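Trying the structure run again after the queue cleared.
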Amino acid sequence: MQAMKPHFFAVIPLTALVLTAGIAVADGPKPIRHLAYHFDVSVISTLTSHSSGIGDGTGGSGLANYSGGQSDKGTITLDVMQAAADGGLTVQVAENALNSRSAKSTLCVVYGDGRMICDPNGKITEEEQALLQAAGRNFVDPTQFDAKKHWRVAGGQNGFTTATDYTMTAGDPTKVVTISLQRVDKMDGAQGYNATTDGFISYNMPLSVPTAIKEDTVMRQSQGMGQDNRVDTHVSMNLLTDSMQVAKP
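Done. Tokens:
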């Protein structure tokens, strides 16, 4: 059998949590801030077929794995268009990839707690979502820390739940800090899945911007008839340019 086509799942939480409200910006506005990131991404999908215990028992038994994947790299641009009274930032995100993952500019509103409202007609990749979740105002808010410099963001809608634990692990809160993250996503129903993400964010506190992001996600999904699907997604990115600063290596 031929390799299974990778299953991209990160857009599911986006559509599950986000209301497709209209987003309006005046024609031809100039961004108030321009950011560019270099990214690397790989996605490997493995379908495991269990032949034991299926059918009338006369066939063979065992496991068979079918894998497929892709990797890509390129640039993500994030233009901040305006700041809203409710704390959101209106942004335009676009991706220029070396291979097949390029995505045209999509308009979104992002919040400090990771919520986002994006044009439902746009394409948001896993790597763009990783950036958008950390791009809101007051993403790192020391007033929300517990005694261990930890905070949690959680939510859910329509059978989907998500919870992310963030912990500041190093750095100077007046300069650049390192934040670890652990996320658990679950979707109920026939197309349900469980996904776990581990990673870190390097964050410039004075300028309120992530300077580096790394996420490793494992998604597991039962597809019935003794078939289980696993998707491993690895995303990393680093700030290249920021119109409000000169990015340092």
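The two ends are 45 Å apart (CA to CA). Worth checking whether this holds up in the mutant runs.
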